[in-house]
Design brief:
With about 450 residues, the chain is α/β, with parallel strands linked by helices. The chain contains 15 helices and 16 strands. Strands 1, 2, 3, 4, 5, 6, 14, 15 and 16 form a nine-stranded mixed beta sheet that branches. Strands 10-11-12-13 form a four-stranded parallel beta sheet, with helices on one face. The two termini are about 15 Å apart.
């Protein structure tokens, strides 16, 4: 069965009591999703019997009193509805076929919004196609090409690069390591003057406190926090390793709350990417990581590359099971404290990086957020409501509300009871177009 079918424009009613029937992509300009248990991701309440009117890819109304005569309707009775999930640290580099694979995997797993963290010129046209709904895939917010110590060697180059990216139309600037303090300050000054934003890694010489105070929008991977904590506890940056791996044993627990309290009043968010860190550092046999059924959707060469990266990590004599356990424990404590002190946490797994299959890894990230101490609602908010708040109206994603993009996920079970229920997907609506379970399975089958 193909993704496209032709139906008449007469009234159609589909029942979801067992499984969704095909709902044509080209016939989805105006339709109604009825009888769903809609989860309000802001309050955590469940609103049974809700109806969503979808028109031209947007949410026209919630529980509309009147709808046009003859409008198509789909019954979601017995299902739970959440906003489409957001992957806030995604990569979509590579050839056209590979990018198409990545985009389809995101959608098939209910990920309807991604923040591309390594932009390139072709992503600007791709963004237009995705965000207009002309191409099947998630809504795209894209950085410009990497701003780092190699691409920027002076404040003048920093100013020029940031200006060029703003003029080209990129959404923000991606920071990679290596910037000098002077170059980083030039990035900050230029971006602020042009009304742009920047996020990602930190410039280590600037430090985590300086980065936050400068106004960086996101700190991805919790970069720089372990290093800062180690220094405050008498350590130094020698042999700091992978995101401070070698310094985690220097961190004293009580210093974590003190550091976050110092910076919590500033406007920034954290994108943890815990899935990536666990794929590297969790004391788990490589065979167990390799056995993930989701690998069948990725090229074998990619999976083998992931395997080599993981093996290389553990081949270093400084990497021990004890240090790995402490590294992951400190990160978990940091996540708990971010949540406790009100620092926004945005869901992101860094897909498709080491053993992170697009979409599949984000559901693992949700589970890791709960394991780190968040409630299922708080974890779900990290991938929905918090994204909406982070974008401050610039992008119509992150929640179910009138005037926002119709990106929805219909689930078989309530994710507020068990966060793993987010993977029990019955249907995905992306830009107003519904893909039922059969269609999603067809997409996945085509990628094997």
């Amino acid at each position: 069965m193909s993704l496209k079918h032709t139906f008449s424009f007469s009234f159609l009613l589909f029942f979801l009591t067992s499984s969704l029937q095909v709902f044509a992509l080209e016939d989805s300009r105006s339709w109604l999703l009825t009888d769903v248990s809609m989860i309000d991701v802001e309050s955590g309440t469940v609103k049974p019997g809700a109806s969503i009117w979808i028109k031209d890819g947007m949410i026209e109304a919630i529980n509309p009193k009147k709808t046009p005569t003859g409008i198509k309707a789909v019954s979601g009775q017995g299902r739970w509805l959440i906003p489409g999930l957001s992957e806030m640290h995604a990569h979509i580099s590579g050839g056209e076929k590979y990018i198409d694979r990545v985009l389809k995997l995101f959608v098939a797993h209910g990920v309807t919004n991604i923040r591309g963290m390594l932009g390139q010129p072709s992503h600007l046209d791709l963004r237009q196609a995705l965000n207009s709904g002309k191409k099947l895939g998630p809504y795209l917010v894209t950085s410009g090409p990497s701003v780092n110590g190699n691409s920027v060697r002076s404040p003048a180059e920093a100013k020029s690069k940031v200006t060029a990216q703003v003029n080209a139309g990129y959404d923000f600037h991606k920071i990679h390591p290596g910037l000098s303090p002077e170059s980083y300050r030039a990035v900050v000054k230029t971006a602020k003057r042009l009304g742009s934003s920047w996020g990602g890694h930190i410039a280590m010489e600037v430090g985590i406190v300086g980065t936050v105070k400068a106004g960086q929008s996101t700190i991805d991977h919790i970069d720089g926090f372990i290093e800062e904590l180690a220094i405050r506890n008498g350590g130094d940056l020698a042999n700091r390793g992978f995101f401070g791996f070698g310094l985690a044993e220097k961190v004293k627990t009580q210093s974590i709350a003190e550091l976050i309290k110092e910076i919590s009043a500033y406007d920034f968010a954290i994108v943890p990417t815990e899935t990536l860190m666990h794929n590297f550092a969790l004391d788990k046999p490589i065979e167990e990581l390799m056995s993930n059924p989701a690998h069948k959707w990725m090229p074998e060469s990619t999976v083998q590359g992931w395997k080599r990266s993981r093996e290389n990590f553990w081949s270093n004599d400084s990497v021990t099971k004890k240090r790995a356990k402490q590294f992951l424990n400190v990160r978990s404590l940091l996540i708990q404290e971010f949540q406790k002190q009100g620092v926004p946490i945005l869901l992101g797994s860094d897909a498709p990086q080491v053993f992170n299959v697009p979409g599949d890894s984000l559901h693992k990230e949700l589970s890791l957020m709960v394991n780190a101490g968040l409630t299922p609602l708080q974890a779900l908010q990290a991938g929905t409501q918090s994204i909406h708040q982070f974008y401050q109206g610039k992008h119509p994603v992150g929640k179910i509300a009138k005037g926002l993009r119709a990106d929805l996920v219909l689930l078989d079970k309530n994710p507020l009871e068990n966060i793993n229920n987010t993977s029990l997907i019955r249907a995905v609506v992306v830009a107003g177009k519904m893909l039922d379970r059969n269609q999603l399975d067809e997409i996945l089958k085509s990628l094997e």
